[in-house]
Automatic annotation (TrEMBL):
<dbReference type="InterPro" id="IPR005250">
    <property type="entry name" value="R15Pi"/>
</dbReference>
<keyword id="KW-0413">Isomerase</keyword>
<dbReference type="GO" id="GO:0043917">
    <property type="term" value="F:ribose 1,5-bisphosphate isomerase activity"/>
</dbReference>
<comment type="function">
    <text>Catalyzes the isomerization of ribose 1,5-bisphosphate (R15P) to ribulose 1,5-bisphosphate (RuBP), the CO(2) acceptor and substrate for RubisCO. Functions in an archaeal AMP degradation pathway, together with AMP phosphorylase and RubisCO.</text>
</comment>
<protein>
    <recommendedName>
        <fullName>Ribose 1,5-bisphosphate isomerase</fullName>
        <ecNumber>5.3.1.29</ecNumber>
    </recommendedName>
</protein>
<feature type="binding site">
    <location>
        <position position="232"/>
    </location>
    <ligand>
        <name>substrate</name>
    </ligand>
</feature>
<feature type="binding site">
    <location>
        <position position="61"/>
    </location>
    <ligand>
        <name>substrate</name>
    </ligand>
</feature>
<dbReference type="InterPro" id="IPR000649">
    <property type="entry name" value="IF-2B-related"/>
</dbReference>
<dbReference type="InterPro" id="IPR011559">
    <property type="entry name" value="Initiation_fac_2B_a/b/d"/>
</dbReference>
<feature type="binding site">
    <location>
        <begin position="206"/>
        <end position="207"/>
    </location>
    <ligand>
        <name>substrate</name>
    </ligand>
</feature>
<dbReference type="Pfam" id="PF01008">
    <property type="entry name" value="IF-2B"/>
</dbReference>
<dbReference type="InterPro" id="IPR027363">
    <property type="entry name" value="M1Pi_N"/>
</dbReference>
<dbReference type="GO" id="GO:0019509">
    <property type="term" value="P:L-methionine salvage from methylthioadenosine"/>
</dbReference>
<keyword id="KW-0119">Carbohydrate metabolism</keyword>
<dbReference type="GO" id="GO:0019323">
    <property type="term" value="P:pentose catabolic process"/>
</dbReference>
<feature type="active site" description="Proton donor">
    <location>
        <position position="196"/>
    </location>
</feature>
<comment type="similarity">
    <text>Belongs to the eIF-2B alpha/beta/delta subunits family. R15P isomerase subfamily.</text>
</comment>
């Protein structure tokens, strides 16, 4: 197995590469590099080895459908390849195409979403979403004089990355602890969050704490929008597959000597926000309702999904 595959999987698992879009692009790039550097002797060997590489990458972040879709997009033509050279070339080509499409999608989402931001708005965001931050920065570039609250997003504190990025862009930004969400909601005009996975019924799987933003926004009548590329839509959920919520080591939350022996720690990475609390999905295809997610999935994947 190439060093690139193992290193990429390790960086994703250890949170050195963060954000659903970033890990999807990293996974696709690793598959492309694997194919480019492959020195095996036959097509059958390549198919077996690329399946092993695929598993290593996917096991690094089981919840992220973006990673699954990025890897699948890269290897989609291997099965029909007539030669080793054709198979390798298809993975290299498809991986590069996915990375380009993914980056372009974020730029498109920024332009579409910025139209929903009005002059003088105070916004709230959570964790560190490229798509959500793209909208905020684009609105700022348009001179809309916005203010932003960003959650700390424990235990990994991705919010520190968010406030640095926004501050560097000249945005008026305030960092808050996660439990202060309801306290500041009275001052918020709109909430923008990213997505890790979107299910066929329009529910959102995202960084733990997202659901509390949605509940507080719903109570305060504040629009709650999810900013996401459509490759984060999970086709597996059409057939009843459940999204696995990843749990991480308790050492991320507390040190062993900080709690009594026998105390359990629950450290989920993500939570679920029901569709009824989501006002809109802002995608590269436009603004859609949660109820339209299924139709978008079927349209993009075609009738082959049901075969």
């Amino acid at each position: 197995m190439t060093d690139t595959v193992k290193a990429t999987a390790s960086d994703i698992k250890e949170m050195k590469i963060r954000g659903a879009g970033r890990i999807a692009r990293a996974g696709a790039s690793a598959m492309g590099k694997f194919a480019e550097d492959y020195n095996g002797g036959s097509l059958e060997d390549f198919k077996k080895d690329i399946d092993k590489a695929k598993k290593i990458i996917l096991d690094s972040r089981p919840t992220a459908v973006s990673l699954w879709n990025g890897v699948q997009a890269s290897v989609k033509d291997v099965g029909s390849a007539a030669s080793l050279g054709e198979a390798k070339a298809s993975v290299v080509r498809n991986a590069a195409s996915f990375v380009k499409m993914s980056s372009s999608a974020v730029e498109t989402i920024a332009k579409i979403g910025a139209k929903r931001v009005e002059k003088g708005d105070t916004l709230l965001t959570h964790c560190n979403s490229s798509a959500a931050l793209g909208i905020i920065k684009e609105a700022h570039l348009q001179g809309k004089d916005i203010k932003v609250y960003a959650t700390e997003s424990r235990p990994w504190r991705q919010g520190l990355l968010t406030v640095k990025e926004l501050s560097d862009a000249g945005v008026d930004v305030t960092l808050i602890i996660d439990s202060a969400v309801r306290a500041v909601m009275k001052d918020i005009d709109k909430v923008f969050v990213g997505a890790d996975t979107v299910t066929s019924n329009g529910a959102l799987i995202n960084k733990v704490g997202t659901s509390q933003l949605a509940l507080a926004a719903n109570e305060a009548r504040v629009p709650f929008s999810v900013c996401t590329e459509t490759y984060k839509f999970s086709p597996m959920t059409i057939f009843g597959d459940m999204v696995e919520i990843e749990e991480r080591d308790c050492g991320e939350v507390v040190k062993a000597d900080e709690i009594s022996k026998g105390v359990k720690i629950y450290n989920p990475v993500f939570d679920t926000t029901p569709a009824k609390y989501i006002d809109a999905y802002i995608t590269e295809l436009g603004v859609i309702s949660p109820g339209s997610v299924y139709d978008v999935m079927v349209k993009q994947l075609g009738n082959d999904i049901f075969k």
